[in-house]
């Protein structure tokens, strides 16, 4: 089995560590800028090819894909648009790219929650079933890594069983294993059309002040079969990376989320700091903290300096 993100010993920021997020939105005919996110866009199905081609020329080869369908589904079961996007990208780029696909329901559910809800509560069985359908669809289409971001109890274990039952026993999982309920997700939610309605996500995302729960969450996901672990938001989780790696021996990375990235853009816009310097410094800190990979909206902007 290929190891895309080995558990490294160096603290040096390297291009191969970087993962560039991409949004593709069925509602669009070309591309649309994401407010506050600099050189990041929501792409149409036809335009995303040129976007990835541009990043490949800059040396970025790993991409985290967020797919935003036009139609909402109360009980999500139709992931044909997702299949088409992934299939077309892998057909176009083959092994030139490593394609991670975010596996969640927030962009497809009417209330923007990461699971299927009834009376302000998550139905775990229905949620797992829909996530399994989605993940299998993505693997059939050619996804390299499934990245479940739902934070529901036992999702990793459920997906492992589903993969074994469907001849995907070697499928790789990058778990959003320590993901906090955060105020730093705003620009992402606009792009992904996923702002929660009716109630917040505190029933399934972690409280930011609870270190023990944060560590336990990653340890549990490791035990359930994750290949890679992630902390999110990166800035508010940076103290956890080394301990998670020590406890699990798994490659562990950080997600510099949309609000963190947008703050760098805002400082630059108001002439309170230089964007490239701010970005480089922030990513160097993740490397210093022993992150094995970094998901950042600035991957394409920093690559030429590495």
Question: What would a concise description of this structure say?
Answer:
The chain has 306 residues and is of the alpha/beta class. It has 10 helices and 12 strands.
CATH architecture, by name, is Alpha-Beta Barrel
**Class by helix and strand content?**
alpha/beta
Quickly count the helices.
Answer: 10
Query: What helical percentage do the residues reach?
Result: 25-40%
Q: H/E order of the elements?
A: EEEHEHEEEHEHEHHEHEHHEH
CATH superfamily: Aldolase class I
Strands in their spatial order, largest beta sheet: 1-4-5-8-9-10-11-12
CATH topology: TIM Barrel
Mean pLDDT: 93
CATH class: Alpha Beta
Q: What does the largest sheet look like?
A: 8 strands, parallel, barrel
Distance between the termini: 28 Å
- The number of E-state strands comes to 12
Keywords:
306 residues; TIM Barrel; eight-stranded parallel β-barrel; two-stranded antiparallel ribbon; 10 helices; 36% helix; 18% strand
């Amino acid at each position: 089995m290929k190891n895309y993100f080995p558990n490294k010993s160096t603290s040096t920021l390297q291009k191969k560590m970087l993962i560039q997020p991409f949004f593709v939105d069925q509602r669009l005919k070309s591309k649309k800028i994401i407010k506050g996110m600099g050189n990041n866009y929501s792409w149409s199905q036809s335009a995303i090819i040129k976007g990835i081609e541009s990043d490949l020329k800059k040396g970025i080869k790993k991409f985290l894909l967020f797919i935003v369908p036009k139609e909402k589904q109360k009980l999500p079961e139709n992931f044909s648009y997702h299949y088409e996007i992934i299939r077309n990208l892998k057909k176009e780029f083959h092994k030139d790219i490593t394609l991670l696909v975010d596996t969640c329901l927030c962009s497809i559910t009417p209330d923007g929650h990461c699971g299927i809800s009834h009376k302000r509560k998550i139905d775990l069985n229905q949620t797992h079933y829909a996530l399994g359908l989605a993940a299998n669809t993505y693997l059939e289409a050619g996804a390299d890594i499934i990245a479940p971001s739902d934070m529901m109890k036992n999702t990793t274990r459920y997906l492992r069983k589903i993969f074994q039952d469907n001849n995907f026993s070697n499928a790789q999982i990058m778990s959003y294993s320590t993901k906090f309920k955060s105020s730093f997700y705003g620009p992402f939610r606009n792009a992904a059309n996923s702002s929660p309605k009716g109630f917040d996500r505190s029933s399934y995302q972690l409280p930011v002040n609870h270190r023990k729960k944060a560590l336990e969450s990653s340890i549990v996901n490791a035990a359930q079969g994750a290949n890679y672990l992630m902390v999110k938001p990166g800035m508010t989780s940076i103290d956890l990376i080394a301990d998670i790696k020590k406890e699990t021996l798994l490659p562990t990375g950080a997600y510099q989320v949309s609000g963190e990235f947008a703050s760098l853009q805002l400082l630059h816009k108001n002439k309170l700091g230089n964007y490239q310097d701010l970005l480089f410094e922030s990513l160097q800190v993740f490397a210093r903290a022993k992150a094995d990979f970094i998901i950042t909206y600035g991957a394409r902007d920093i690559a030429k300096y590495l």
